[in-house]
Design brief:
Strand content: 25-35%
Number of domains: 2
Helix content: 10-25%
Shape: elongated
Number of strands: 27
Number of helices: 8
CATH class of the largest domain: Alpha Beta
CATH architecture of the largest domain: Alpha-Beta Complex
CATH superfamily of the largest domain: Spore Coat Polysaccharide Biosynthesis Protein SpsA, Chain A
Structural class: alpha/beta
């Protein structure tokens, strides 16, 4: 079985923090968003190769990260795009990857690299092998408004009887989380695209697949975070830290109140400040300020401010009166 980790997006909703870095490499506690997935795939002997599907803009970032990780399975598979408006769509990119890597006749696990999940990927693969059909992971988001943004799953037992991608009026709150497993004979991306179907979100392919074959859903409780906005990123960090905070040994923190779910990273400087539920990236400076529910990016300076829900870009200098 091969695995594809989807990491080709540009995360424009999180700019400026993700303008020059992939969101999958954002820190979440002591690790990154993508590392929990890569570690799980590395540990499972059923996974032969792991293809990190990314774009040309972020290829160097992922290449360095994979090299430094010490993992043996991950390798890059690079889309020929450098900007959002050049993207092939997720299904289009998957079809190209399968052809490029010559894995059309293999079972395939596909998982979004911005998924932070609480279940063991090995348990999902067990479920897939037991069913012998395409499988997806499903989670109850508890809100019909949230469900509008995802693929809605309707089940009879654990068999998917209906799938609606981004419904305007969802009848339930059980959604697909972009974690899929396909037997070799269901890796039908080319056939799907040849019929003129939507190449963008993988949910459209799942909706088509449900009409052509049996599909089963692995449902789980616990936590799931789709990291696509600053708010969801901070929620994921809060879940990972569980109320604790991290201050890197190389950071300078003086006369500062550190609240819950704070991460002050390497070489950051924080003086005379009050921090809560916030991230201060490497080399950033926060002085005489209150910072809540905010992200201060690398080498940015915040001075004499009261920030809440702010996103401060790298190398920015924000002071009272500016």
């Amino acid at each position: 079985m091969h695995a594809v980790v989807l990491a080709g997006g540009y995360a424009t909703r999180m700019w400026p923090v993700t303008r020059h870095r992939p969101k999958m490499l954002l820190p979440v506690g002591e690790t990154t968003v993508i590392d929990t997935i890569l570690d799980a795939l590395e540990a499972d002997d059923r996974i032969e190769d792991v293809y990190v599907s990314t774009n040309e803009r972020f290829a160097d970032d992922f290449e360095s990260h994979v090299a430094d990780s010490g993992l043996e399975k991950p390798q890059l598979s690079i889309e020929d795009t450098t900007d959002e408006d050049e993207k092939f769509g997720v299904v289009g990119a998957l079809a190209q990857l399968v052809d490029r890597e010559g894995i059309a006749d293999e079972d395939l696990l596909v998982i979004a690299g911005d998924n932070l999940i609480s279940f063991d990927v090995a348990d999902f693969i067990d479920f897939f092998e037991e069913k012998g059909t395409p499988a997806l992971a499903a989670y109850d988001v508890g809100s019909r408004e949230k469900a509008k943004s995802y693929g809605l799953v309707d089940l009879d037992g654990d068999r998917v009887v209906d799938f609606q991608e981004k419904p305007s009026d969802p009848p339930s709150t059980l959604v697909s989380i972009a974690c899929y497993a396909f037997p070799a004979d269901s890796v039908r991306f080319d056939e799907y695209l040849a019929d003129g179907n939507n190449p963008d979100e993988p949910g459209w392919f799942i909706q088509w697949l449900v009409e052509h074959s049996d599909v089963h859903a692995f449902t789980f409780d616990g936590a799931w975070f789709d990291i696509g906005t600053p708010e969801s990123y901070l929620e994921a960090v809060a879940w990972a830290l569980s109320g604790d905070s991290i201050v890197d040994d190389s950071a300078t923190v003086e006369d500062t109140a550190i609240g819950e779910n704070v991460h002050v990273m390497a070489d950051a400087t924080v003086r005379h400040a009050d921090l809560d539920r916030s991230l201060v990236f490497p080399g950033a400076t926060v002085v005489d300020s209150t910072v809540r529910d905010s992200i201060v990016d690398s080498e940015a300076t915040v001075r004499d401010l009261d920030l809440s829900g702010a996103l401060i870009g790298s190398h920015s200098r924000i002071e009272n009166g500016e």
